[in-house]
Design a protein that fits this description.
By secondary structure, the protein is an alpha/beta fold. The protein has 3 domains: 145 residues, Rossmann fold, CATH 3.40.50; 222 residues, Rossmann fold (3-Layer(aba) Sandwich); 97 residues, GMP Synthetase, Chain A, domain 3. The protein has 17 helices and 26 strands. The chain has a 9-stranded mixed beta sheet, with helices on both faces. It is globular, with a radius of gyration of 23 Å. Keywords: Fatty acid metabolism, Ligase, Lipid metabolism. GO terms for molecular function: ligase activity. This is Acyl-CoA synthetase.
Length: 536
């Protein structure tokens, strides 16, 4: 634990709003529909939230969960909660009620803030929430307070608008916990520290060339890696946040035009929907729009389509465990003269480490030795440095496995090109990345095994033009039964987050090894035949 001195200061992303409120007090910080708030107003609301939490007994080391889309309260939470030394737990609004309850309990959250559209995710599990003492309703789409607690604005009114002390005495203390699904199917809590969040937030702005004149549209969920740290980075630059409740192409293009949006981040599936909408309505962008994409490698065609309407695409790569993006497909001036197709092929690579990251390699996971830089030899992507998580919350065994050999193991198989640019070739494990969301095949299989007519099952990713890849279930029915694909899919939707359910089902025998293990790789090969590589 280090204390500030004449030549040292603790790094915390909370400090960005303190500076911007001082430097840009009257500049527009947050836009949401008809709402426009300056940086001084934004800062005042953050202080009110922090103060109100403290009055409710929330303090250093406590956890505060938010189940909320990209609206101003979610942005305010990214400052107020870590400001008082607590940790923010941003929960995916697409999860099932059981999954949300598990995360709230596993994270030991003492307070939960729930947007009223998603109250039905929490209400059935209220009696299971072991440590929750404070419940707040975020009444954005209606004035209803479906849960037993005050509405958000009334809660803020309990707080003090005066600047709060930033209660961070160790820059490696936990700032946020982000839950990600692993191959076991149980979500793991990825602990972000203040130092990593501070540095990665600045790294994002360096790589994306934002300035105080930038206008950033929130198409990327803030619950994904804290919005890839843009929740803090945009504020650091004194730029403008434009919040967006629902990501719909029509709304994106309308707001881009009306608000003069200059930057946004999005998974490839959003780019696909945007380009399809633009083609259908014969739209093009009036001025260049900078787009950062990650979550699943975009197909070169997707990049070409978006750049054809006036966007500039920058691909980055990372994982929840490294604060979001860790590498960027850094553009080289000598590529300017290439054809559009050649440019798109280069832009589809995962690239080189961020300026603030630097430590990234492709290694033989058995020996931890770097693979040849030949663009052909596959190995595992490994990373280390300031923007690697502290570990998994309350899971030392998983943490030790992830950090084996002194590096964070990504689980992604890739090649290293001669120019030191990385390109993902396959997944080491069976995680499906669908529209930027991680889906555990084991989790889906475990649910399917509960179906009364299922004897054996294997779930693998299959190509999908919109989502990149989606789950497909291969099922051996129990003798005498004849389930339909619709029944299987409906069963999954009733027991999992709907996006995790298989989109298609195939019935028949499953190939196995001599020891009885289902050969899932052969199922994948069949589904991906004729493609250069998997889209994930």
């Amino acid at each position: 634990m280090s204390q500030p001195t004449v030549n040292y200061d603790i790094l915390s992303p909370v400090k960005f709003i303190v500076r911007s409120a001082m430097v840009f007090p009257d500049k527009t910080a947050v836009v949401y529909g008809d709402i426009r708030r300056t940086y001084s107003e934004f800062f005042e609301r953050v202080n009110r939230l922090a103060s109100a939490l403290k009055k409710r007994g929330i303090g250093k080391g406590d956890k505060v969960a938010f189940i909320c889309p990209n609206t101003p309260p979610m942005l305010e939470a990214h400052y107020a909660v870590p400001m008082i030394g607590a940790a923010l737990v941003s929960i995916n609004i697409r999860l099932s009620s059981n999954e949300v309850a598990y995360i709230i309990n596993h994270s030991d959250s003492k307070a939960i803030f729930v947007d009223n559209e998603f109250a039905d995710l929490v209400a059935p599990a209220m009696d299971q929430l072991e440590k929750v003492q404070t419940v707040v309703n975020i009444c954005d789409i209606s004035a209803d307070t479906p849960l037993d607690g005050p509405d958000y604005e009334a809660f803020l009114a309990e707080g003090d608008p005066d600047p709060m002390e930033i209660e961070v005495d160790d820059e490696r203390q936990v700032a946020t916990i982000n839950y990600t699904s692993g191959t076991t199917g149980l979500p793991k809590g990825v602990m972000y520290h203040h130092r990593g969040a501070y540095l990665n937030a600045l790294g994002e702005q360096l790589e994306f060339s934002t300035t105080a004149n930038s206008v950033y549209l929130w198409t990327l969920p803030m619950f994904h890696c804290n919005g890839w740290c843009f929740t803090w980075g945009i504020t650091a630059m004194g730029a403008t946040h434009v919040c967006l409740r629902k990501v719909v192409p029509e709304e994106i293009f309308r707001i881009v035009a009306e608000e003069g949006v200059t930057h946004l981040c999005a998974a490839p599936t959003i780019l696909i929907s945007m380009s399809a909408y633009a083609t259908e309505h014969k739209l093009s962008l009036e001025k260049r729009l900078e787009i950062m994409t990650a979550g699943a490698p975009p197909a070169p065609t997707v990049i070409q389509n978006m750049e054809g309407i006036g966007a500039n695409i920058t691909q980055t790569y990372g994982l929840t465990e490294v604060f979001g993006p860790h590498s960027v497909c850094q553009w080289q001036p000598q590529w300017d003269g290439l054809s559009d197709d050649e440019k798109a092929q280069l832009k589809a690579r995962q690239g080189v480490p961020y300026i603030v990251a630097q430590h990234m390699d492709v290694v033989n996971p058995a020996t931890m030795q770097p693979v040849p830089r030949d663009g052909q030899t596959m190995g595992e992507i490994v990373m280390r440095g300031n923007n690697v998580m502290l570990g998994y919350y309350n899971d030392p065994e998983a943490t030790e496995t992830a950090f084996a050999g002194g590096w964070f193991h990504s689980g992604d198989l890739a090649v290293m090109h001669p120019d030191n640019y990385i390109q993902i070739m396959d997944r080491k494990k069976d995680i499906i990345i669908s529209g930027g969301e991680n889906i555990s095949t084991v989790e889906v299989e475990n649910v399917l095994y509960r179906h009364p007519d299922v004897m054996e099952v294997a779930v693998v990713p299959v190509p999908d033009p919109k989502w990149g890849e989606v789950p497909k279930a291969f099922i051996v029915p129990k003798p005498g039964s004849s389930p339909t694909a619709a029944e299987i899919i409906d069963f999954c939707k009733a027991n999992l987050a709907r996006f995790k359910a298989p989109k298609t089902v195939e019935f028949g025998p499953l190939l196995k090894t001599a020891t009885g293990k289902i050969q899932k790789f052969k199922l994948r090969e069949k589904e991906w035949q004729g493609r250069d590589r998997r889209v994930n």
